[in-house]
Amino acid sequence: MRNHPALVLVVVLLSTLSLPISLTGASVALPDIGRDLDSGLAGVQWVVNGYNATFASFMLATGALADLVGRRRVFATGVAIFAGSGLLGAVAENIVLLDVVRALAGVGAAAAATSASAILAAVFHGPARARAFSLFGTTIGVGLAFGPSIAGLLIEAFGWRAVFAAPALAALVVLALVPLLQESRQPHPAGSTGRGRPRSPPRCCCSSSVSCRVPSWVGPPR
């Protein structure tokens, strides 16, 4: 069962789905957050912008770190940071604390997203790799598209704090499954293989596809 391709795909896709939902859901919750925490527009905007900024800023660094110290290790660390930040955000009593933990969640999300793509590249090969990355990209799109609807349902049923708690609980499920994944790392210097050839295209394309989605996430909430 350890490192079974189907299990790896489920773990990666569940974590990947949680990341954009946490972003788009937070945008929907901003009016309720502002009223509950008695904060103005500048303060609540950083609930989203802080996450965006750290997510975009740390993607390259966490991707390189995953190649050096291990993809599973960085993935687990990122998911743990994301989950912990989400739980802290769900109980935050002032806007400053919420903004800080949201920025920290962006760091965790960057580590989880970049190492997740590397894990897929290490486990899947040939046509199976193409299918896995298609599902990876589709999952990101689903999270972005349906995140506001899911957040609206959560807010109506449980309040705005559920928008941060729900993705955090999903991340805890992922974290419990991480020991079933096999560790891997880049065995050769970044950008090359043992024969002096460039790194395999699927790994590079995956990083590019994730990075290309970042600009659409960055910006003040509407």
User: What's the CATH class, please?
Assistant: Mainly Alpha
Helix percentage: over 70%
Instruction: Count the domains.
Output: 1
Radius of gyration: 17 Å
What does this molecule look like?
There is one protein chain. With 222 residues, this protein is mostly helical. It has a single domain, classed as MFS general substrate transporter like domains (Growth Hormone, Chain: A, Up-down Bundle), CATH 1.20.1250.20. The chain has seven helices and no strands. It is elongated and about 50 Å long. The N and C termini lie far apart (45 Å).
Name some characteristics of this structure.
222 residues; mainly alpha; Growth Hormone, Chain: A; elongated
In short:
With 222 residues, this protein is an all-alpha fold. 80% of the residues lie in helices and 0% in strands.
Q: How are the elements arranged and paired?
A:
Elements: H1 5-37, H2 41-69, H3 71-91, H4 95-123, H5 127-158, H6 162-177, H7 201-217
Helix pairs in contact: 1-2, 1-4, 1-5, 1-6, 2-3, 2-4, 2-7, 3-4, 3-6, 4-5, 4-7, 5-7
